[in-house]
Amino acid sequence: MGFIPRQPATSLLIARQDAAVRDTFSQRDRAAIERTTQEVGRYIFARLASQHPTPLERRWWDDRIMSWAMQDERVKAQMFRFVDVLPMLDTSQAVVEHLHEYLGTVAGALPRAARLGLSLAPPNTLAGRALALAARRNVLGQARRFIAGATVHETLAAAMRERKQRGDIALDLLGEAVTSDDEADRYQQAYLSLLSEAAPVVAAWPEVPQVDRGLFAPVPRLNVSLKLTALDPRFSGVDPAGAIRRVGSRLRPLLRAASEQGAFVNVDMESYDKKSATLAVFQSILDEAEFRGVTNVGIVTQAYLRDSEADLRQLCAWAERRGAPVWVRLVKGAYWDYETIHARSVGWPVPVFQEKRETDANFERLTELLILKHQSLRPAIASHNVRSLAHAIAVARQIGLPTGGLELQMLYGMADPIKQALVDLGYRVRIYMPFGELIPGMAYLVRRLLENTSNDSFLRASFLEDAPPEELLMNPLEPQPPASPPAQFPAHPPAPTAPPRPPLTQFKNEPPVDFAIPTERDALLAALADARAGFGQRYPLVIGGERVDTADHLNSRDPSHTATVVGATASATAADADRAVASARAALPAWSALSAHDRAEHLRAAARQMRRRRSELTAWIIYESGKGWIEADADVAEAIDFCDYYALGAEWMAAPPHIDAPGEENRLEYLPRGVAAIIAPWNFPLAILTGMTAAALVTGNTAIMKPAEQTSIIAAKLMEIWEEAQIPPGVVNYLPGRGEVVGARLVEHPQVALIAFTGSREVGLAINRRAAEVSGAGAPVVKHVIAEMGGKNAIIIDDDADLDEAVLGVLKSAFGYQGQKCSACSRAVVLHGVYDAFVNRLVGAARSLELGPAD
Predict the structure, then answer these.
(1) Could you give the CA distance from residue 280 to residue 240 in angstroms, rounded to a whole number?
(2) pLDDT of 402 higher than 80
(3) Of 328-332, 409-413, 636-640, where does mean pLDDT reach its minimum?
(4) pTM
(5) Residue 720 catalytic?
(6) φ and ψ at 817, to 5 degrees?
(7) Candidate list 358, 601, 724, 788, residue with the active-site label
């Protein structure tokens, strides 16, 4: 008990607050904080040493199972795959089949008893049914350890047990993943029911002063946690205004009900792409006159994010302007693997620290900031790391903050001895208690199991591996011992046995624009305004570098506003096609004589121009093809990729492999075919047209671009880029026009050697037939046709599929590209066992899609 802080005089606390405006401590203060941290940490570890479970307790056996699973990462992964899919398995046969499927691949690493159990329990046998029952019972037992109950009644009974141990509670309703507005409405109603049902019960509980009395005001007994994504199936950082509008309509009634019931509402933080929208919704709603004075609200900050300190400082400045404090639940973060993998997959900077030590150090910095700014941001420090918790206590003691001014939070079912040690020190310890049915709660359970068994887990090191307290209490700013290397996601996959061809390994995809960043949104909004100002222009043909207008023209309309004419292009005739072929033929010798490297440099120059004009190109794609922001930007990124990748590929082809044989000297050389007719579709108006043209150019051919009638203006912008890239006149020619006129003439022209087409199967086959017919007398070569044609694509939904992911995946594939992706899902093949549930959810999700202008 000697570590309970002294209660300072009010004037002393205020003085320390004034001195702490700089958010820093002197060297002497830091030395004192470190001494207290070590002191409190050793006290907690001393308490833990006397509270290890015995073999007579269920927790001892649970810990042994976890310890066994951690011995082999393959076993761990397969076990958790099984746990994740178990809720969808409704027969004993299915359970046993999945046990064999998952664990059979790692049978050699299983204990002998487990191997024997699998071998003696095939599906459709009495032993198999017994094995399935045991597996389900064991997983349910683990779930009940971390999930407080299936109903509000069960959960409140568990909460009362925690209060008897002087612990406070926060309730979290599981099953937050929503795919439709109907599901979001049901989730809101579930929380309204929770507030009305639980409030009278908790109000009747006997007072526990340690948890019910705060430093500044009484502490609400009912504390609920929710995720904003559960209130909006389309929640996205790309559209913060839309998120505020949609979430606000469901969040306001919850805040009103909580205020009426005297309850506290905490907003959880999720993946990084949702962070900016979560903060925007939280601050926008609480800035409204009705809620500006509400203080029983909180939000989460994740210390593993590199920009978390900036977010916390912005939140503090906002709270000070608002004039009423809010609570901040400081956590380290639970999506590290996902954030790392996702960022690397799209080429964005990784938003999370890559070493655990960096996260721990940032957690301590944010802890200090929160405690120093506790007048505006009430600190709730959530961790199971004894070092992190002891440091928070030490900082609070250093500024003289009473125990009632600092809340510590931990998860239900985890590290109970640590909780009790903190309670005995006099602090309010809030236990985060998820509740709900096992099936929607299984994802939560898997996440808890992964946290408990990760290589960096403090609980794993302290409870299962018995790491010494000296190691666990080390200051994260100090050098770490070499025996404990930081966990880091591998920068690259293991090298293949046969090394790849060097030039092609240099290629990196162009990262998409992150429209959750305000400056990126602003840039596109400005480009959209500029594009609107440019509506109505007329774009001529470009033949041999000359602009050629025609009597006829093609109007281009905005598919989102069909009455709006974006602009017009000239409409080529068969005679114009003949002129373009002649121009391309004349430019062919000089262009094909260039080295592959020189031609590749022109493509790289085009890629640079596309990057420079990226927002402009995206805006024109939005207006002329009706794509949404993300998809239009992806079109530009893919066009850049084509230029860069084909430039590398051409250089690789120009350096052929060694093919000499004894007594022979052999040389492999790629030669251009001649004039290429590029006939492009409307659905990827920049990417596909760029890709087919770039491939032809870099291999020494000359090209005639015949874009789709619907998107010829975007093709005109591409023609400008080829010219900016200093490609000589006649090497590329721009020939918009009607397909039955100019397209047909290019296919039939005897001097066209190559036809690259993307479009429908009907047109593609017709081109193939006609090209074969005219490759006769007078044609210098047999025409080569490259035709990419559309088809029907299916997604198969198995009966053990995660329906949340399946519904969202089909919805994204079918509708996520505004109907413009040829490889989109056109049919779903759904197994009988989940058919009705899947279809009902898919229909609801589709009905919840918002239809409107692309801009």
Answers:
(1) 7
(2) yes
(3) 409-413
(4) 0.84
(5) no
(6) -120, 25
(7) 788
